[in-house]
Design goal:
alpha/beta, Rossmann fold, seven-stranded mixed sheet
């Protein structure tokens, strides 16, 4: 494992409440460092997980599946349930989908799920969108948030995991009616990968839960303006306090 992408745990011994952060496809625990530290300062324990296939080699990444990612998260939640009374899941992109699949089984300890750009419907990618996405992956400042090695063969190795994400989207849609845990969300109208129509799917599918959402306008899928980062930070903490 690349030590740069090790899981992060910030402990508050006086609290039995924990916020779990789940990165997305090719993401890293590092992308939640700021929000994890902010959560810790507000009195919560914070854990940012590393999903299977991430933080290692391209071969490990290419052989990872949505079932592996989900099993890992379920294992973490079971372990944390023995130590904490209240648990929140905050996921970016694919990480939010995994949180939804965990929540299909009712749990008194799971207090809420917060989705950040989690795709239930993808945007059709134009040639220009594809250029933007590729430019993000190969930017120097993207490396700190990507736990998958950059390589000219990355596109090839990402094919199988991308199919797994598609499967996960279908599974996530199917479990929406089973979810009883409150759901919060943030989506951007400028997201080049995730359609804002995802909100419509959430509203229609979460028939046994509540949905509180925010729409931002300037941020992309993996890049957020400083102003909208603050909006997300405040939205997550407000949601946690409300559902606690």
């Amino acid at each position: 494992m690349n030590s740069r992408h090790e899981p992060l745990f910030l402990e508050n011994k006086e609290s039995r409440e924990i916020i779990v952060f789940i990165h997305g496809f090719m993401g890293s625990p590092r992308q939640f460092d700021r929000l994890a530290e902010l959560s810790h300062k507000n009195g919560y324990n914070a854990l940012s997980v590393l999903l299977p296939g991430h933080g290692g080699t391209l071969r490990e990444f290419s052989s990872s599946t949505y079932r592996m990612w989900g099993a890992h998260l379920n294992s973490e939640i079971e372990r944390l349930s023995e130590c904490f009374d209240k648990i929140w899941l905050v996921g970016h992109s694919m990480g939010g989908l995994l949180a939804l699949t965990v929540a299909k089984r009712p749990s008194k300890k799971l207090r809420g799920i917060f989705l950040i750009a989690s795709p239930l419907e993808l945007t059709f990618l134009s040639k220009e969108d594809i250029k933007i996405r590729l430019a993000q992956v190969f930017r120097d400042d993207y490396v700190g948030e990507s736990s998958v090695p950059r390589s000219t063969s990355l596109a090839f190795h990402a094919l199988a995991p991308m199919v797994e994400v598609r499967k996960l989207i279908s599974v996530s849609k199917s479990v929406l009616p089973k979810i009883q845990t409150p759901v919060g969300a943030v989506y951007s109208v400028s997201d080049e990968l995730v359609s804002i129509k995802t909100l419509r799917i959430l509203k229609a599918g979460l028939i046994n839960s509540s949905l509180e959402y925010h729409v931002i306008v300037d941020s992309l899928h993996s890049y957020y303006t400083d102003e909208e980062k603050q909006i997300i930070d405040e939205a997550v903490l407000a949601f946690v306090k409300k559902t606690g």
